[in-house]
Amino acid sequence: MILIVTPAAPGSAHGCTHGNGVTARRWAGILEDLGHETEIADGHRPGDHTALLALHARKSADAVRAFHAEHPRAPIVIALTGTDLYPDLDATGVDRSLLELADRLIVLQPHGLVQVGPSLAERTRVIVQSVPAIPPRPPLDDRFEVVFLAHVRPVKDPLRLAEATRLLPADSRIRVTHVGEGRDEALGEALAAETGRNPRYDWIGPVERDRALNVLARSRVLVLTSLHEGGANVISEALAARVPVVASRIPGSVGLLGEDYPGYHPPGDAAALAETLHRAERDPVFHDTLVRHVSALAPMVDPANERRAFAELMAEVTGHCPPSEASGR
Length: 329
Description:
Blueprint: E1 2-5, H1 20-33, E2 38-41, E3 51-55, H2 61-70, E4 76-79, H3 82-85, H4 89-92, H5 96-99, E5 104-107, H6 111-116, H7 118-121, E6 124-126, E7 144-149, H8 159-165, E8 174-179, H9 185-197, E9 201-205, H10 209-218, E10 221-224, H11 233-241, E11 245-248, H12 251-257, E12 264-265, H13 270-282, H14 284-297, H15 303-318, H16 323-326
Parallel strand pairs: 1-2, 1-3, 3-4, 4-5, 5-6, 7-8, 7-10, 8-9, 10-11, 11-12
Helix pairs in contact: 8-13, 13-14
């Protein structure tokens, strides 16, 4: 049985209900489909485990060390998140000796290989987070809806989009629907106040995943204002829905969208963000260009690719190769 460890989110009973836990559950499903048994936990659990898959090197460090002490010969795989990788491993407090215990490391987009450095790159595998195709939904007729799918915490720079909406021309039809849980009290209070006074901004708080994806599927643009990302799942969701992305130009997003993607703005620059959004609203050629880019990238998030990557990874660390993978089906 493979133990999958994901750190619990603040205020949650279990890490599987938030953030990395969503990824953990998807990965558990993939591993089970490949013939492995799995157990998900928010820390080390003693037991007859054959391997460890830990999300977040820094937050799961104690679990990794405890697992290694109990199962010194069992393979360990550590998935490095954005707050592990950026701005760099030393600045984020990742213990490099911990990474030496890992048989393999996972990063969620190719730029992550640059961040781990040459000494670790050989043991690192890129696995892009997958999302099944999301059917389009009719956009709202009374607005140019922009969706912001982000929990309220500093690394997401959640006030930047609200600031940008206040810089738009008076005749702009842009309206923001912000979906996400309040994780930071001060930022949450600021966004609640913004929603009360800014007719262009509506923070609706957390909603069920299906509802969030429905909002995404009807939106004209998805915005990502993050200061750091390891490989944002929301970009995978936008690609699966073929919804254009307007993103801060950070390595984690460039690693997914490409150097030549035309929808970037400098991190923290509300004026540049407002300009890009207004262009997407008013310039159909620009909007269509964004659509073509995300449509061309959509195959990257096909679930078959993530499954194949995990089959190869587990074959490397355990020698277990499911018959369907070995036969090429």
